[in-house]
Queue: 2 jobs
Job 1
Amino acid sequence: MNLILLFPDDFNGDKNHVRLQGRRLQHVLTVHRASVGDSLCVGKAGESIGTGTITRLSETVLEMAVQFDRQPPLPLPLTLLLALPRPKVLKRVLRSVSALGVKRIVLLNSFRVEKSYWQSPVLCRESLQEELVAGLEQAKDTVLPEILLRPFFKPFVEDELPGLAAGTLAFVAHPTAVRDCPRGIQKAATLAIGPEGGFIPYEIEKFIQQGFTPVQTGNRILNVETAVPAIISRLY
Amino acid sequence: MNLILLFPDDFNGDKNHVRLQGRRLQHVLTVHRASVGDSLCVGKAGESIGTGTITRLSETVLEMAVQFDRQPPLPLPLTLLLALPRPKVLKRVLRSVSALGVKRIVLLNSFRVEKSYWQSPVLCRESLQEELVAGLEQAKDTVLPEILLRPFFKPFVEDELPGLAAGTLAFVAHPTAVRDCPRGIQKAATLAIGPEGGFIPYEIEKFIQQGFTPVQTGNRILNVETAVPAIISRLY
């Protein structure tokens, strides 16, 4: 936790004082091993970053005087479409993607996505947010990504995707694509990454119909956890 | 498992027939759900890739007629120096790095590496190999990376590193570096990635003395699992 993310409830009515318990308190006690008077990096969810000076610290409560003086890092101008991975992998990928600065993530169905994944408790709002917050705390960011759950491939791609991808460079990662994934594009993009085993030809065809270019990153098949940061880091 | 990696013991004296049990048999039964007559991608450890046709398959044994006709993918010309991460993270990073095609990995001590990590059973030869093999099976590669364990930072950097890094571009990832990590270098490189919290200034200085250039990939602090594929993918 390189930044402690603060939410409206933490402020108790005073915009320069926060009171924390639970996970963040425990982290400050056991990982930061901080004391009264120490300063920690803090950020207001969706807003600016600053410093919290500890005014009270016990086993049950952490209080800080906070001030905010700078903006969070720039977001990546990327919408990520991700075939829903298995829940354990999803948690790690969301954390990673949130840390990388992606602000819109679509979790998408695909032929090779196991149906049971859509029933996972990881997909509840609180559980998703937990991973996204962890990514922001890692990367010193404050702006929570938006997550869209789209359990029906065809209507999403036909009806909603054209609007989401409008005005962006659109790529679908595909191991047998002819074109290399471009580097350092400096432009808004929409990137689709398939499930283990890849999108099926029908799905690739649907993306192509929507203006997506299939791209590959070499002749190695990477798992989702490795492919996601590898491709995003190549694009930006 | 996109490729079944075969070792000398699997061959039972005949270079075109293998007999497998255990983990690989279970995978073929439960994930591939294959039958007699099906063909699977196979590779001989350290050698070529080909096809295995299933000649016998039961709950206890898998036999295949194998032939080899092509080379594994090109390795990355990269030596990765990695401050030893915590064991659970190490396993995932090794798998990822092996899939990416890195062939020499140095697990290195650093001031912020917890001493207990060096006692982890994950560091035994068999356990390391298990993760590396999983990475090769994912990426359809056959060449096992070499792993060097170096629990003493100073003697490694002063005495051994000059030889390892000779003739390569040498970079140390450092969030506050002035220079951006280069893209698509197409050359042999040595890359050092620090622990959570980063290398300390003394360590960065030691790398600089050995000709390393500190580089950064933006103002976000990434965890090791995200940073490793992100930086490697930017370099190559």
Job 2
Amino acid sequence: MDPHTLHTPKADVTLYLVTDSTGLREEDFLTRVEKACRGGITLLQLREKERSGREYFRLALKVKEISSRYHIPLLIDDRVDIALAAGADGVHVGQSDLPVKEARRLLGPDKIVGATAKTVPQALEAEAAGADYLGVGAIFPTTTKVVTVLTAVETLNAICQAVGIPVAAIGGLNKGNLSILENSPISGVSVVSAIMKQADPENAARELKKAVCALPSRRHLS
Amino acid sequence: MDPHTLHTPKADVTLYLVTDSTGLREEDFLTRVEKACRGGITLLQLREKERSGREYFRLALKVKEISSRYHIPLLIDDRVDIALAAGADGVHVGQSDLPVKEARRLLGPDKIVGATAKTVPQALEAEAAGADYLGVGAIFPTTTKVVTVLTAVETLNAICQAVGIPVAAIGGLNKGNLSILENSPISGVSVVSAIMKQADPENAARELKKAVCALPSRRHLS
């Protein structure tokens, strides 16, 4: 696809929350998800790699009930079957999950399929296979080294230039370090801790969204 | 369903092989699966809990290619999405996987949905939700005690009486201990090691099938 012919995207990745329920009581987890919705997240991904299929499904139904009330699309990490069973809005697949092409085929043209890409070739392949957006990173990996971060941002920018679908930067981003992306033509950021682990997830989401929207090079795709 | 009104079942569980690729080179694993097919298994389940979605899918395609040549239905453990993507013939779901009802809804009426049941209520629930057969056990759990085995066989028999769908006995069964099921109205047995871990999987399957077919109380449902 010509990257200059940008269509209205199916997924608004401006502030994309990926959940992490590890160590949280379910009630607390769901409350935090709801607060994040109130704070203005634009997309939500349920990511529960450790749970059994039945538990994942059960939790997906509960999260869907919340996200629907706020009209925020819910994606399921990896499991297309759970996305279908729970009536979610789509899936996010990584490089070790079902291929984008298969996810698209199972979900049909209207559901959202997002993909992780770490390189330009991976990004182009995912776009060609039908991905609606890309998650690209990690910008700040667990063991942060300045040189790693700069390389990550360079790759991120190259991917943004190469594809015509929205790109969300992922990996250790928060309000405090967002300025590293001020020259990146990303469409948004994807976070876990910067919202889920804050004392006030609603306010954290609101503040982070403001900061993302203020990024001067952001691609307004929604 | 009236257990006396037995319809021709969709799944023939006479000799039902569940795979285990742990510790095997892929080529060796696939060769063993093919030998089992030649030896007369009637149903095949790919069970790869440890693999990533992409690896599971990739292996499912390879196994499907083999099983199709022998006209043996291939089921995928747990992952309905991988079953759909790989064109498998159905799924097997345990008590911690997607519920039978959801699996059936996603797969439609023609695919095979099998379920694990450990009690009569679980068996009746699975049958009502649309399961085509039940796997019941473990007859010989890892820590074998005679009293456990007898209780397991009692439960197995009660389940066979309660449902109208085929029941396969599972758990540590082999040619040597099969006689414990001589009064059980099972339709077949499900094994892993008794075929996959034998020097000659083809012959092991052939011999085991003969022994299963000779069980005097077996329900001939196919």
